[in-house]
Amino acid sequence: MQQTTDQDIHKQLKEATLFLAEYASTLMAVGAQTSRIQLNTVRMARSMGYHISLLIFPKTLTITLQDDGLNHSYTYIKKTPALPLNFKVNMKLSQLSWEAFDERLPLKEQWARLKAIVAERRESPWLVLLLASLANASFCRLFDGNATSMGIVFVATLVGFLLRQQLTKRGMNHLAVFTLCAFVSTMVGVTDYLFFHGGTEDISLGTSMLYLVPGVPLINGVMDIVDNHVLDGISRLTGALLLIICIAIGLSGTVIIFGIDPTTFTSVTRPDIVTATIADGLFAAVAAIGFAIISNPPRKALLICALLACVGHAVRYFLMHNAAMPLDQVTASTAAGFAIGLLAVPFAMRIHCPAECFAFPSLLPMVPGMFAYKAIRDLINIVRLPDEYTVEYVARFFHNGSLTVLVMFGMVVGCIIPIFIFHRQSFSVTRG
Q1: Reduced to 3 states, what is the DSSP secondary structure of residue 181?
Q2: 292 HSE (CA, 13 A, CB side)
Q3: Which of 34, 260, 264, 358 lies 20 to 30 A from 234 at CA?
Q4: Widest Cα–Cα separation across the chain
Q5: Radius of gyration of the chain, Cα coordinates, nearest whole angstrom
Q6: What secondary structure letter does DSSP report for 196?
Q7: Who's near 421: CB < 8 A, 6+ residues apart?
Q8: Is the pTM of this model over 0.85?
């Protein structure tokens, strides 16, 4: 009789462990940060009356589940599935953890809800294509591109993003996809040098492929490191760095084919700082909606993304360009990120959605894409130009590369400070 009871307990532990492994690995795949994965999974295990040990690695996770008396245990290693970023699934799986905890849902019901959430259809790919193209065109404007550049970047993004969708659907390696899409988009972007001569040719080329910049993995990586999940954070940042290298390779192909070597970058002076701040905020709002929809957030979060991006980018622009005490871009970006994070927490509580679902896309229009582009151009020049120019371009590369890293780190840390200050509220907003 005792043997049968032990077998039953072991079977129950196994079934619960397999479910929790599927749940946690799905959260990891759709872009949840490590803290949320741990908190949600532990909560669900507690709702079942089990003790859990969860070890999260970049590509796998290990779960050990024990019964209440610590007499029986079951360990399972689960590989993280290949799923695209999906903030809606992140939100609904977080809600499921609270429903399981509050309502003591049976395991069969939890499985059914998990499968239903993962099976939900994403936004129309054609809508995503259009909004992503508008977003990158707005991004071009934020870097002082004129109407000609915006039109060229819109077409470059439309062509490149459509290619990305089709290649991804056919299962091509994601590194190859990013390289090809960067090459195709910059081939469209370089037409401003070849045919149009619109006046901001460097901006056309430099922003034509910025829709590919892996903003969410970069932000998640920094957040994981700050939150003491160093291994996962480094893994996310390394993956993002590989994608950036692929973008650089695609750009290099275009530059080498046409011999493009811009040594100056367009800088537009706007005398009326109030009008310029408002305009920057509005274009940032459009960019945030387009970049957000790529990650499939809940629709109720899109307008909040736009509002937060508008406020954040306007704050940064004003702090950098006011005559009284202009701030450097790192400090201004940190302050803007803090403003976004501070607004994200009450909005998250109001619509019962994780703050990162609209805080992260709101940060994307502030990603220092032009600094990254300059760093890539400097790296290409180190290789291509004679030795007497090497020292100059090495210095430029480290200058622009350092600014890229510091701006990214500053705006992310600024954003997550309010989330950490209001930690309990931030991680319980999905509770019904």
Answers
A1: helix
A2: 28
A3: 358
A4: 86
A5: 23
A6: I
A7: none
A8: yes
